[in-house]
Design brief:
Blueprint (H helix, E strand, L loop, with lengths): L16 H22 L2 H8 L3 H7 L3 H19 L9 H16 L2 H16 L1 H10 L1 H17 L8 H13 L2 H6 L8 H19 L3
Helix pairs in contact: 1-2, 1-4, 1-6, 2-3, 4-7, 4-8, 5-9, 5-11, 6-7, 7-8, 8-9, 9-11
Length: 211
């Protein structure tokens, strides 16, 4: 089966953008509720209020529907990490990214989806590649571009922007992310997100900021 990219997903099988998003919204709830193995096209069709045949006219299998959901969700959430004002002071810009990143990766949606994908990727490694390409890899690339620009502007001293981006996200994750993945911590509230974000940014700027 061909992997669906984020760019291709909205136009798949002739569905309108609105219909496509409605299907993915319902599929999102079904997959999170039942997991990949427990979810079915019949459940998605029933919640949509249509027939399974109509759903199959858009997606020819559960696998194709799940791939479209992964591609679209990852691309949308990755882009949302960098919606803060580009003209804010350096520390404020990175703090906004850190808050958005921690909120996303520690959300119930992200932790549950990653758990589902980790299980499914053992059977179909291509779904793991799809998730990584449209989610983490895209976010790392965008962040590395920002870091490189700040380095060129003289605000940071970075030799390897890709590694600096990995360092930044690792500082943001701390131990909170793994505890979330293992069910050992609740979804963080605004205060917890802010505390972890400020700590991560302070350490990142200590490493790379021009003083």
């Amino acid at each position: 089966m061909a992997i669906i990219t984020a760019a291709e997903a909205p136009a798949i099988r002739g569905a309108s953008p609105q219909r496509h998003q409605a299907i993915l919204a319902v599929a999102h709830d079904v997959f999170l509720e039942f997991g990949y193995e427990g979810a079915s096209m019949s459940q998605v069709a029933a919640r949509l209020g249509g027939s399974k045949g109509t759903l199959y006219s858009y997606f020819d299998s559960k696998e194709a529907l799940f791939e479209a959901l992964v591609a679209e969700s990852c691309a949308r959430n990755s882009a949302a990490l960098f919606e803060g004002p580009a003209d804010a002071p350096l520390a404020d810009r990175y703090l906004a990214i850190a808050r958005a990143y921690i909120t996303l990766i520690c959300s119930d949606w992200a932790t549950r989806m990653l758990q589902i994908i980790a299980v499914e990727a053992r059977r179909r490694p291509e779904i793991g590649r799809l998730f990584y390409a449209n989610g983490p890899a895209a976010a790392f690339a965008n962040l590395a571009t920002i870091i490189a620009a700040d380095t060129a502007a003289g605000a940071l001293t970075v030799d390897d922007a890709d590694f600096a981006a990995e360092t930044f996200t690792a500082l943001c994750r701390g131990t909170l992310h793994i505890r979330r993945m293992l069910g050992q911590a609740p979804e963080p509230d605004g205060g917890a997100v802010d505390f972890n974000a400020r700590r991560a940014v302070a350490q990142f700027l200590k490493l790379y900021a021009v003083v």
